[in-house]
C-alpha cells in the first residue's frame, strides 16, 4: 500500500516499532500505537504528534486475546485500518543453563500469540472491505532453527510460514500480507546480546527499508542483503552441515 492513512503498530515503544511510528507520522495520518512501557510509549506518541499525526496510544498486552480484540475494534471504529503491523516481540537464548520452560512459553506467547491476536481481529475488519495490508515481523533467524536461540528462531519461523501462506490465501480478497525478516537491528532486544552482531543496523534505517518494501507490496522484506543470503543458504544446506556451522555461534543468553 503506497499511502496508508490509518496505521496500527504493536510494540511501538522502542526499536523497529518506534522507528516505524515516527516514519509514518505526518499530517493526515492516524496512528494507533500499543506497548507495555507507558513512559516510552508516551514519548513516542508525543514525537509523532509533533510531526502532526493524530495518535492514539495505549498500554496493551498482545498476549491477551480479549484485550487485543477490544482494542482493534475500537481503533477501527475511530478510523478504518489501512495498515496493521504486528511488530511486538521478545527474545532470549539458552545461555549456560538452557532455555527454561517459562521463558520458552513467554517467547511463543508474545511472538506467535501476539501476532495472532493482532492479525486475526484486523482481518475480520478488512475482509468485508476487501482492502487492507497486514505486515508481520519475523526475522532472518526464522529461516533455520538456531541452537543459540531455539524459541526465538522457532517462533519467528512460524510467523514467516504463516504470513507467506496467508499472502497467497488473501490476495484474491484484496488484502496484502507482507513478512518482514530483519537481521540485527539496534533495539532493546539486541542490546542484550553480548557478542559481535554483523551488519548491525540503526532502527531508523530498518524502518526506511520496511516502509519502502510495504509500499511495493513485497511478499518478503529481508535485510541486510548479505546476511539474508547467509540465512537462506543455511536453510538450503544439508542438516548435518548447517548444524555443524550453527552450533559454533554464540548463545543469545546472558547468564
List keywords for this structure.
255 residues, alpha/beta, Rossmann fold, seven-stranded parallel beta sheet, globular
Give a description of the structure.
By secondary structure, this protein is α/β, with parallel strands linked by helices. It has a single domain (6-246), classed as Rossmann fold (3-Layer(aba) Sandwich), CATH 3.40.50. Helix content is 47%, strand content 15%. It contains eight helices and seven strands. A seven-stranded parallel sheet has the order 3-2-1-4-5-6-7, sandwiched between helices. α4 links the parallel β4 (83-86) and β5. α1 packs parallel to α2 (38-50) and α1 packs across α6 (203-215). The protein is globular and about 50 Å long. The model has no long low-confidence stretch (mean pLDDT 91).
Mean pLDDT over the full residue set: 91
Rg (C-alpha, Å): 18 Å
Q: CATH topology, anyone?
A: Rossmann fold
The CATH first-level class comes to: Alpha Beta
Termini separation = 43 Å
Number of helices: 8
CATH superfamily: NAD(P)-binding Rossmann-like Domain
Largest sheet strand order: 3-2-1-4-5-6-7
Strand-residue proportion: 15-25%
What low-confidence regions span 5 or more consecutive residues with pLDDT below 50? none
The biggest beta sheet reads: 7 strands, parallel
SSE pattern: EHEHEHEHEHEHEHH
Shape: globular
Q: What percent of residues adopt helix (DSSP H or I)?
A: 40-55%
